[in-house]
């Protein structure tokens, strides 16, 4: 399986130009792009036959597709992904778009909901797509947590806060997590969560993991020194203590109890690491991200794209997100900077209102 960077590096300048022009032509017109059109626009003089051959090669690589019997080509989802990651040139936000977004700040009202609603309307209006605005993450103490498995690669965390606020967040669980492991994680967290915020909970788990790790180390030290056990993958996240055959035959009850204790501590450490990972996933966020077609699992709309960016408070902490959902034939070069600008604007507006 090729990754995008490899595919791009395997193309010569001519292939790259043909590919770029097909994608740009498709994004602006929505129609398949033919070799004749490309031959007219190419920076070097080439025949239509040469361009057709390049297009066939790009189709063979899985980057272009011919939707009908026509000679025209359109980019595949893989092609769009490659273009967006490696060849996309973004335009500066125009003065008109900037003015439309800045107009949302005119009101001095304290209601954050109304402000975000106006931002959503402005974003939809200027991009002609559906806007997505996730309001600031809640940092009140947690009353109850529940994880719900939605699909093999998608899960939902339901957070019920002590002040009655309820929040749902979708995240991608680590491979191998099951509905029962999520239930177990939720039970474990609910026993500890009372009165703690999500951030507090995460800190507590980090210190629990460190403490477990130290306990295991001190107990295992003697066994390793005596040659009764050894570390496998030492220092790695999934290291194990391998107990040698002779140690399993120990008759001393104290030593046997110590071995059982080490095994139990390992099980506990593993469970805490899994739970820490769940907490990490419910809090994390990144810069502007683009989900194309089938990657857009959050909305299960394979023919759509989502351009989304988190926004931050004055302490540079991610508190929400804004985005645009539209057809895969979005004008990415225009929409990516608009979403980025909107996220920064919302962050500033909420910081001015003291939202954190």
Automatic annotation (TrEMBL):
Q: What is this protein called?
A: Heat-inducible transcription repressor HrcA
Instruction: Give the Gene3D superfamilies listed for this entry.
Output: 3.30.450.40, Heat-inducible transcription repressor hrca homolog, domain 3, Winged helix-like DNA-binding domain superfamily/Winged helix DNA-binding domain
One GO molecular function term?
A: DNA binding
What InterPro entries is this protein classified in?
A: GAF-like_dom_sf (IPR029016), HrcA (IPR002571), HrcA_C (IPR021153), WH-like_DNA-bd_sf (IPR036388), WH_DNA-bd_sf (IPR036390), WHTH_transcript_rep_HrcA_IDD (IPR023120)
Q: Name one Pfam family in it.
A: HrcA
| NCBIfam families referenced in this protein's UniProt entry, alphabetically | hrcA
Q: Does the keyword Transcription regulation apply?
A: yes
HAMAP family on file: HrcA
What's this chain's function? Negative regulator of class I heat shock genes (grpE-dnaK-dnaJ and groELS operons). Prevents heat-shock induction of these operons.
- Residue limits of the Heat-inducible transcription repressor HrcA C-terminal domain? 115-336
Note whether Transcription occurs among the keywords: yes
Q: Which family does it belong to?
A: Belongs to the HrcA family.
Q: Name one GO biological process term.
A: negative regulation of DNA-templated transcription
Q: Which UniProt keywords apply?
A: Repressor, Stress response, Transcription, Transcription regulation
Coiled-coil features, chain-numbered ranges:
none
Name the SUPFAM superfamilies on file. GAF domain-like, Winged helix' DNA-binding domain
């Amino acid at each position: 399986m090729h990754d995008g960077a490899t595919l791009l590096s395997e193309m010569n300048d001519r292939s790259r130009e043909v590919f770029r022009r097909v994608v740009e032509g498709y994004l602006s017109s929505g129609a398949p792009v033919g070799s004749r059109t490309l031959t007219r626009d190419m920076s070097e003089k080439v025949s239509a036959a040469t361009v057709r051959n390049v297009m066939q090669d790009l189709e063979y690589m899985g980057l272009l597709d011919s939707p009908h019997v026509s000679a025209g080509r359109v980019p595949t989802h893989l092609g769009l992904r490659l273009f967006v990651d490696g060849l996309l040139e973004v335009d500066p936000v125009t003065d008109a778009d900037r003015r439309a977004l800045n107009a949302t700040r005119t009101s001095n009202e304290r209601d954050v909901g109304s402000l975000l609603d106006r931002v959503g309307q402005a974003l939809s209006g200027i991009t002609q797509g559906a806007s997505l605005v996730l309001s600031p993450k809640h940092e009140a103490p947690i009353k109850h947590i529940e994880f719900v498995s939605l699909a093999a690669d998608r899960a939902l965390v339901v957070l019920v806060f002590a002040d009655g606020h309820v929040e749902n967040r979708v995240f991608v669980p680590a491979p191998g997590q099951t509905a029962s492991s999520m239930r177990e994680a939720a039970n474990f967290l609910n026993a500890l969560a009372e009165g703690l915020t999500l951030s507090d909970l995460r800190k507590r788990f980090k210190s629990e993991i460190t403490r477990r790790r130290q306990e295991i180390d001190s107990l295992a030290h003697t066994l390793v020194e005596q040659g009764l056990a050894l570390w496998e993958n030492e220092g790695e996240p999934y290291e194990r203590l391998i107990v040698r055959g002779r140690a399993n035959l120990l008759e001393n009850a104290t030593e046997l109890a110590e071995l059982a204790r080490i095994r139990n501590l390992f099980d506990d450490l593993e469970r805490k690491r899994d739970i820490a990972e769940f907490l990490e996933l419910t809090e994390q966020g990144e810069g502007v991200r683009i989900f194309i077609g089938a990657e857009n699992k959050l909305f299960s709309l394979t023919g759509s794209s989502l351009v989304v960016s988190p926004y931050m408070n004055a302490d540079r902490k991610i508190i929400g997100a804004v985005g645009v959902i539209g057809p895969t034939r979005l004008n990415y070069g225009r929409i990516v900077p608009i979403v980025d600008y909107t996220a920064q604007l919302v962050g500033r507006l909420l910081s001015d209102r003291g939202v954190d």
